[in-house]
Amino acid sequence: MAMAMGFATPIKFKASSIINNSDHYHALDSSYVKRAAELSDKSAGFTSPHPNFGCVIATTSSLRNVVGEGYLYAQGTKPAEVQAVEAAGEYCRGATAYLNMEPGDCDGDNTALSAFIQAGITRVVIGIRHPLQHLRGKAIQALRSEGLQVDVLGEDLRSVSMEDALKSCLLVNAPLLYRSASRVPFSVLKYAMTLDGKIAASSGHASWISSKKSRSRVFELRGRSDAVIVGGNTVRKDNPRLTPRHGGGHLPMRIVMSQTLDLPEVANLWDVREVPTIVVTQRGARRSFQKLLASKGVEVVEFDILNPKDVVDYLYDRGYLSILWECGGTLSASAISSGVIHKVHAFVAPKIIGGRNAPSPVGELGMVEMTQALELIDVSYEQIGADVLISGFLQPIPDLTPVIPSVDETSAIDPSLSPYDSPIIFFYKTWDPYGSFSNFSPHPIRMPDESGDYVTWSSVEHYYQAHKFVGSSDPNARSYIEEIFLAKSPEEAARMGRKMQREHPRMIRSDWESVKTDVMYTALKCKFSIYPHLKSMLLSTVGCVLVEASPHDLFWGGGRDGEGLNYLGRLLMKLRSEFVGDDDDDDDDTHKPPEFSTSCQET
């Protein structure tokens, strides 16, 4: 998939509804910001949900010709701003860049901002400020301090057309906005029903209510989600697979909620060769069945009291942005009552099934008067084959227009306040404050291969996953290494490596369990050695405990309740101590050659 579009000569972008009056330039600005939002959505379904960034660069002539475009394919890949600058080339000088969202310096080196400044961009139009507190307003301030004109929709630019563009920017990053404001993943309830409001016949038979085109749209919705949730009744009656079925790309986690674990021993969801499954249940439920699931590779997570709110809180800690609920009426009602559902997609088929006992999409909510009914907002209607898709929000997209003080601004107000008072520093996703510590961060490393020749790996995770197969006696191992090497993102490299390890355990090098921490440490040491800003960031944490906050990885992460081994955090603290020791040695002998120069090269 191409991610950057370049043009040998400028071409005219067809801005819609442009009128020849004083609103002309506002209409152009609006159309390009909407285009950036449209671009940012192009990776949906191919990678795990992530902040969506798109960038359009246009010349400042009266026609405002588009000269470059780009979008973020996945976390850990080349920023949209850099792609657009590279595509536009010399046409950047004096041009305007349009972004759906303020750049986020997740790399720790201001890559996107530097690209604009060095290319000669003179104006930047931004759809929305970054919703994450530690990134909010920083890029805007940095660009303005370099002399660039920065206009933000709803703040510096106001008009009817701007409101439309702003809405596009909010919608495309709704998951991140909800996660930031509510501290829960963006949750979407999806169901298909007949014209008389039934999701199955009285017998329970439900295949199929909606059309084939509607079911294809459901596959697309799954591909846009981090996880798909169903209840135990759905597993028992429908035996679903819950896969996107689009031939590759992102595969969401499959989650089953069941208090009693009254589930079949054989089910499609217990086949985890392609897609993992989590079963969440009440603590102590059917221990023997839990062991059976574990033997099949299904992850079981227990809760003291199983309810939708605690489950989404757990998924928030797991780093998820977007959840799709495909459950029956009982669980749907519980999720709505818990306040965790933000949006609804209802596929209505022109069929009537009747039946006093036929189930409906939402169970008992405790409402007795029509005035208590929940009303959707921002409702849309779409014809899909013979069906009608009705979509709307139960909770409005969070309004982040009021400027929330950034970390720097807070410190300026009260120097005694620090956002990092805790001696424990958690890191997990690459957009976190210390996200650059992650093995998924977008920092290429150059490491020697088996013959001593240096090879550039796109990330530490690429290097780590590929080295599961280095030295394997199986002749097919080399092709696996090459596939991982060419993976477009760290997430894809991880998915490939884990899948190959599950399906072909004999392909894994025989000493992997004993050397995997050394492989990770070598790669981390290279990364922090060749990027000075990362080394400085690591050294700034002296005196703090570093914890990789993954709630599910009990080896590299800290686990859900601190039960994890936190090996990634341990390796970083070990590396930090080594760097501190090297700095002390440098004070004694400034002519001592760097120990690591023989195993790592600058990229």
Automatic annotation (TrEMBL):
**Region named Disordered:** 581-603
Pathway assigned in UniProt: Cofactor biosynthesis; riboflavin biosynthesis; 5-amino-6-(D-ribitylamino)uracil from GTP: step 3/4
| Start and end residues of each CMP/dCMP-type deaminase domain | 27-151
Q: Which Gene3D superfamilies match?
A: Cytidine Deaminase, domain 2 (3.40.140.10), Dihydrofolate Reductase, subunit A (3.40.430.10), YbiA-like (1.10.357.40)
> How would you classify this enzyme at the top EC level?
oxidoreductase
Which CDD domains does the protein's record reference? NADAR (cd15457), Riboflavin_deaminase-reductase (cd01284)
Against InterPro entries, the record matches this protein to: CMP_dCMP_dom (IPR002125), Cytidine_deaminase-like (IPR016193), DHFR-like_dom_sf (IPR024072), Eubact_RibD (IPR004794), NADAR (IPR012816), RibD_C (IPR011549), RibDG_C (IPR002734), Riboflavin_Biosynth_HTPR (IPR050765)
Entry EC no(s): 1.1.1.193
Q: Name one GO biological process term.
A: carbohydrate derivative metabolic process
Q: Which SUPFAM superfamilies match?
A: Cytidine deaminase-like, Dihydrofolate reductase-like, YbiA-like
Name the catalysed reactions: 2,5-diamino-6-hydroxy-4-(5-phosphoribosylamino)-pyrimidine + H2O = 2,5,6-triamino-4-hydroxypyrimidine + D-ribose 5-phosphate; 5-amino-6-(5-phospho-D-ribosylamino)uracil + H2O = 5,6-diaminouracil + D-ribose 5-phosphate
Q: Which UniProt keywords apply?
A: Glycosidase, Hydrolase, Multifunctional enzyme, NADP, Oxidoreductase
- Please give the Gene Ontology molecular function terms for this protein: 5-amino-6-(5-phosphoribosylamino)uracil reductase activity; diaminohydroxyphosphoribosylaminopyrimidine deaminase activity; hydrolase activity, hydrolyzing N-glycosyl compounds; NADP binding
Looking up NCBIfam families in the UniProt record yields:
eubact_ribD (TIGR00326), ribD_Cterm (TIGR00227), ribofla_fusion (TIGR02464)
Q: What is the protein's given name? A: 5-amino-6-(5-phosphoribosylamino)uracil reductase
Tell me what organism the protein belongs to. Lactuca saligna (Willowleaf lettuce)
Specify the taxonomic lineage: Eukaryota, Viridiplantae, Streptophyta, Embryophyta, Tracheophyta
